[in-house]
Amino acid sequence: MTKIVATPEPLSIAALALDMLLAFLLSAIVAWYYARFAETLSNRVKFAKQLPFLSLTTVLVISVVKSSLALSLGLVGALSIVRFRTAIKEPEELLYLFLAIAIGLGMGADQRVPTLVAVGIIFLLLLGSTILKPKLHRRNLYVNIQVPAGGEDGGVSFSAVNDILATHASFVDMRRLEKQPSWLQMTYFLDCKNQESLAALMDDLQARVPGCTFNFVEQSNMPGV
Predict the structure, then answer these.
(1) What is the pLDDT of residues 60-106, one digit of tens each?
(2) What gap in Å lies between CA 149 and CA 57, rounded to an integer?
(3) Domains of the chain by range and CATH?
(4) pTM of the model
(5) Buried residues in 45-75 as b, exposed as e (16+ CB within 10 A)
(6) What is the number of helices (H) and of strands (E) in the chain?
(7) How many whole angstroms separate alpha carbon 152 and alpha carbon 177?
(8) Diameter of the chain measured on Cα atoms
(9) Half-sphere exposure of 210 (CA within 13 A, CB side)
(10) Which of 141, 163, 171, 223 could form a disulfide with 191 if both were Cys (CB 3.0 to 4.6 A apart)?
């Protein structure tokens, strides 16, 4: 009895090169948009530089395993023993990671037109949400405040800081809160109307929350903008 061995179809180098070129162009556009318009606190330029290479790697993996069931099963087994320990702290980062992977999956599966159309629609929606976002919500300051914990649960200091920020800023968005036994650390995005409001905010913090430390960074000057 003759044993039939299934061999994977040869990979077309021209098709692979075209898929990788299209994936790189699409993911580069996504990376530029992320670096320019995202509101995450991390270094956006450094993160954005990795997105095209994530898409290219995904294209290569999918192109290699799509024609062979054995390779597909091998990929599943390999990924099952890999542990990714890098924490994704911002939901916005996760969105762009999935988008870069989706570009690689689509191009690696030779679904060029559907991938181009889908990414184009997603990009237009993202661009539209940025353009139509109310100016009030375009926060121009990033502030990190650390205060001694007030009372047994730290609630006094937290309430005091929130009241001060709401008094002097037209928009306040708390992005991170960390509680320790002796101190409380808060991260906000703010929209202050002018320099006078900012100066009054700093004076009020120093007067009403003794022992607090804080730093302000204009969003346009943050790493990645």
Answers:
(1) 888 878 766 666 665 655 555 555 556 666 678 888 889 999 999 89
(2) 47
(3) 13-132 (no CATH), 136-219 (3.30.70.1150)
(4) 0.58
(5) eebbeebbebbbbbbbbbbbbbeeeeeeeee
(6) 8, 4
(7) 17
(8) 91
(9) 0
(10) 171
